[in-house]
Amino acid sequence: MGEPLATGNLLEVRGLTKVFGTLKACDAVDLTVARGEIHALLGENGAGKSTLVKMLFGSLEPHSGQILWQGTPVRITNPGVAKKLGIGMVFQHFSLFEALTAAENIALSLDDGSPIGQIAAKARALSFSYGLPLDPDSLVGDLSVGERQRIEIIRCLLQAPQLIILDEPTSVLTPQEADKLFETLERLREEGKSILYISHRLEEVKRICDRATVLRHGKVVGHCNPREETASSLARMMVGNEVKAVVRVPVDGLEEAPALLEIRNLSRKPATPFSIPLRNISLSVRAGEVVGIAGVAGNGQGEFFEAVSGEVRQEDTGAVRIGGKDAGALSITGRRLLGAAFVPEERLGHGAAPRMRLSENLLLSRHATDRKTFIGPGGMVRSGIVQSAAQRIIDAMDVRKSAPDPEAAALSGGNLQKFIVGRELDRRPSVMVVNQPTWGVDAGAAAHIRQALIELARSGSAVLVISQDLDELFEISDAIAVMHNGELSQPIPIAEATFEKIGLLMGGAEPGHAAHGSEAEIA
Amino acid sequence: MDIAVNILLTIATAATPLLVAAIGELVVERSGVLNLGVEGMMIMGAVAGFGAGYLTGSPWLGLLAAVLVGALFSLLFAVMTLSLATNQVATGLSLTLLGLGLSGMMGTGFVGLPGERLPNLYIPFLTDLPVVGRLVFGQDPVFYISIALIAGVAWFLFRTRTGLTLRSIGDSHTSAHALGIHVLRYRYLAVLFGGACAGLAGGQLSLVYTPQWVENMTAGRGWIALALVVFASWRPWRGPAGGYIFGAGRNGQLHAQAFGIPVPSQFLSSLPYLATIAVLVLISRNKRLTMMNTPAALGQPFVPDR
Amino acid sequence: MRVELVKRPQRSALFSALSPFIAFALTMAAGAILFLLLGINPISAFYTYFISPISEVWQLHELTIKAAPLILIAVGLAVCYRANIWNIGAEGQLIMGAIVGSAIPVMFPAFESPIVLPLCLLLGMLGGAAYAAIPAVLKARFNTNEILTSLMLVYVAQLFLDWMVRGPWRDPQGHGFPQTVMFNDSATLPALFPVAGRANWGFVFALVAALAVWILMTRLLRGFEVRVLGSSPRAGRFAGFNFNRMVFFTFMLSGALAGLAGISEVTGAINQLQPTISPGYGFTAIIVAFLGRLNPLGIVAAGLVLALTYLGGEAAQTALGISDKVARVFQGMLLFFVLGCDTLIHYRIRFVGLGAKARGESEAVPAAKLEEVH
């Protein structure tokens, strides 16, 4: 990476620093984006990528450092200023309003005050010209995640920005949808626009980005041309040291093993106006097996998890069977008592109570299964025993923390996730259902968690993993099924599964068709 | 015929303060803030309205004072919940408790004094028309203000860009903040508007409905106004129907007594409260409907992350 | 200038401890201003409010009589509020408890037996709990907002009591006054130390209730359930806790305690039913609950402080001729300051000046320059 050109840089960032409490989220970051380039901002979860771009977009205020726009120092005090300068942003966690229409959402970020009808027409025209069709009159709450991203992109383009920031845009797309997005980005580059592309996915960065800046623990660790690097050299820059690879040894004879988790014709009506109904889902997970469920976010995975865990019960008691017993009518506690364990997607506020200590959070999911150990006479909590059990989990999972028994919210995402997974593993459950096991978790913790899940299965448990991360599913699963619009495909044995085949199913291709797709040409 | 007109007129007069307070709170809740202090702001408006009217001799100045004091009192709530991010439920409750105490203290000297009443509209000829004359052209000024407020708020929320922004904040303050919308600024203004409306409603009570000062004279109307917002499912034009039902309930006792129905007065007095509960149950049992309409960010504190 | 909140990484133990005292000091300051505005010397006013009412032993007894219902109700409400369930109808539950608990002495005035008083107390608790069950059913079954329903039921209870003492339960020998017969001795809550003052067993109930609720909240699984469901309902559901059951539990518990407060007040202090039996204890208890930070032991202290404002209000009315409403204003202000100061536990407050900010932005361009850039 040579010195940035003195002129021609659209954006130049010098020594930008942001401190949260004691954590330096961004530490003297330098970055330049030239005109007409796609510039990657690489880094693993928690490296400070989102913090950096939020400062560029005016959502966060830097503690020190300087931003130069077209060579002139600027203070971006709020997103309005960023928009005026010509910076547009597509958020990772969308900044959309579910109760409003697409056109109203777009109108809210334009300052021209033209009537909604006119904006809707403009948005429709622009969306078709970029091949991202969208209906401006539909309520955002009714739209899929991919469609929502289109609104964000169209909204951004309507502001005619010179720099477009995209924060992890492909994490919510099927591989095919991602291809479509890349075409759009390349076209924008041809039009002379600059793109700051944030990702931790190496393949796509290598594919579309001209230059890359790599962040680690808030610091810039290198600039490079991603096309000249290999995936593993990029990974080394991102993570710093080699992450131990996850080992999965295929096993034979799984077909004969007993099915410990059986789901039969599970259906569920939509619980809220904007949620997905489940349609006739059937699936078995056998002892010793890891089954993965792939799918784009918002296709019913959350609803499915609630139904399987018993947070929402079924009318048909045979719809969910655990360890050979009907569990459909049982509560989550009843299902746990049959040997099942669950890890939900959201850590704070679902899997753990943020303002409670780790020991209390241990009690959260285990007060019934370990009643004899943890609860004394009269419903008295044996806090000493609970605390030592929490310590056991902390040691086993290598949870790093700052206080002896801190509040859950004080832990980093990866460490809290290790604790939550460890809390369930500690029970040696015969059935384990995990939703997004490594979402927002750093590479080291992710590998640790994945390995632990495989080992649990190999020790004779049935493990079901719901994930949006296809790499992860290919790494740990014995078979992968795909959820789309509340329906689940047949599981495809890992030996026959390819990215393309799974990707087509994620996009809603008929389950039957894809199953016969040709894996030879991809593999 | 005259009896019917009189009944309708008393219903309208009883419904007006509910409607005015409710339309203000509707705007507040549309911005995502739950202010349970309506009763407190209303009683402050009532005592200020009576006091200013009595001391200046002008009921119009009284009404103005009611509005200003209502808004000023709501500013306290705004500073607490918006700038200091306190719990909205607890703060709203304390606003009500403080308002009841403060108004009692301020009004000690006003008890038993004759007050000024805002005159009803009178347009020669038009008001003298049979039946419709008094109903359409002969009511008190606040009645007309209430209609204008409802129409104005409906137009503002659904026909203006600022109204759209306000609704978007009520749907998701984090998204709004990410777009660079000044969430707290909008919410401050919404809360102040709600306070002004509650103050106006209180002023109507002590300057029109019963032109005198009685301690606790709001008698739970602020709470009924809160129920009315739920009843209206946060849509301005659904307010009046509910308001007039509640207004009728409040006057049911008078009419029942007028018609000589032998029911203890306490039972009739409790009707508006029981009716409110019944209506709330009917509305809220449809979970889906409530969920569709409730501003998603309602009651959640927002601290901008900078 | 504007105020910005900066989240602390962990809650501040320092401000957790200090906040009630800061709030109290601020209330005193605001109170002093209030008295100056009213033309009263703040020092003598404070003396009248806070010192003179407790300068003799019998006055301390009066203090416990006022504090007992406040503490009883507030510890129950604290459980509700910890569960994020908003029962604000304790005043109504107090009244219903008093009415139901009075059934035996009013309907069988001649019935004297040692079991009368325990029965009265039990019925009082049942009455309060049953009345509190109404908003609980409506919330659990129909998803109806409990704040509004529980509050509406206060007015209904007040009117019901009014009707009872003027109608069916009026003392025939009472010269037409709206009140019931006086209770007989076996339906009277005995004084603790009759020689020294009027303090009765109600205060003991309050202390026992506070201790029991403290154990519940800090030591028992059920208390854990309350805290989880209140702070993160979704995590509570994941734990297998049932929110609807919690609605019933908290409402009935707080209703029973409010009912006990009501019947204790009637059997201990008034000895008959009258149209008004409570000076708003059910509402003041909300202040007590928050002032005590929803912690039962803190509530005991807060209950005593607020009881003092009641006594001080009465004293000030006779001594200084100012409205007893001033005490209500004090209570309201105190609550406001407590809520405001509690913000300091989770946030640091930063004052941001209107001028340019100093930190590392010497090269910052003025707003006008920005326009140029664009």
The average pLDDT of chain C is 88
Q: Describe the global form of chain A.
A: globular
Percent helix range of chain C: 55-70%
> N-to-C terminal Cα separation of chain A, in Å?
34 Å
Q: Which structural class matches the secondary elements of chain C?
A: mainly alpha
* The named CATH superfamily of the largest domain in chain A: P-loop containing nucleotide triphosphate hydrolases
* CATH fold-level assignment of the largest domain in chain A: Rossmann fold
Order of SSEs of chain C? EHHHHHHHHHHHHHHEH
**Total individual domains of chain C:** 2
Cross-sheet strand order for the largest sheet of chain C: 1-2
CATH-level-4 superfamily name of the largest domain in chain C = ABC transporter involved in vitamin B12 uptake, BtuC
CATH topology title of the largest domain in chain C: ABC transporter involved in vitamin B12 uptake, BtuC
- The overall number of domains of chain A is 3
The number of helical runs of chain C is 15
Q: CATH class of the largest domain in chain A, please?
A: Alpha Beta
Can you count the beta strands of chain C? 2
Unreliable parts of chain C: 354-374
Strand content of chain A: 15-25%
Name the average pLDDT of chain A: 88
How far apart are the first and last residues' alpha carbons of chain C, in Å?
Answer: 28 Å
Q: How many helices of chain A in DSSP terms?
A: 18
Description:
The complex is a heterotrimer of chains A (about 525), B (about 300) and C (about 375). Chain A is an alpha/beta fold. Chain A has three domains: about 10-240, Rossmann fold (3-Layer(aba) Sandwich); about 245-340 and about 430-523, Rossmann fold, CATH 3.40.50; about 350-425, no CATH class. Chain A has helices spanning about 50-55, 80-85, 100-110, 115-130, 145-160, 175-190, 200-210, 230-240, 300-310, 330-335, 360-365, 370-375, 385-395, 415-425, 445-460, 470-475, 500-505, 510-515; strands at about 10-20, 25-35, 40, 65-70, 70-75, 85-90, 165, 195-200, 210-215, 220-225, 260-270, 280-285, 290-295, 320, 325, 340-345, 430-435, 460-465, 480-485, 485-490, 490-495. In chain A, strands 13, 16, 17, 18, 19, 20 and 21 form a seven-stranded mixed beta sheet that branches. In chain A, helix 3 runs parallel beside helix 5 (about 145-160). The longest helix of chain A has 16 residues, at about 175-190. Chain A starts with 8 loop residues before the first strand and ends in an 8-residue tail after the last helix. By secondary structure, chain B is mostly helical. Chain B has one domain: ABC transporter involved in vitamin B12 uptake, BtuC, CATH 1.10.3470. The longest helix of chain B has 29 residues, at about 1-30. Chain B is globular, with a radius of gyration of 19 Å. Chain B starts with a helix and ends in a 13-residue tail after the last helix. Chain C has about 375 residues and is mostly helical. Chain C is built from 15 helices and two strands. The two termini of chain C are about 30 Å apart. At the B-C interface, helix 3, helix 4, helix 10, helix 12 and helix 13 of B face strand 1, helix 7, helix 12 and helix 14 of C.
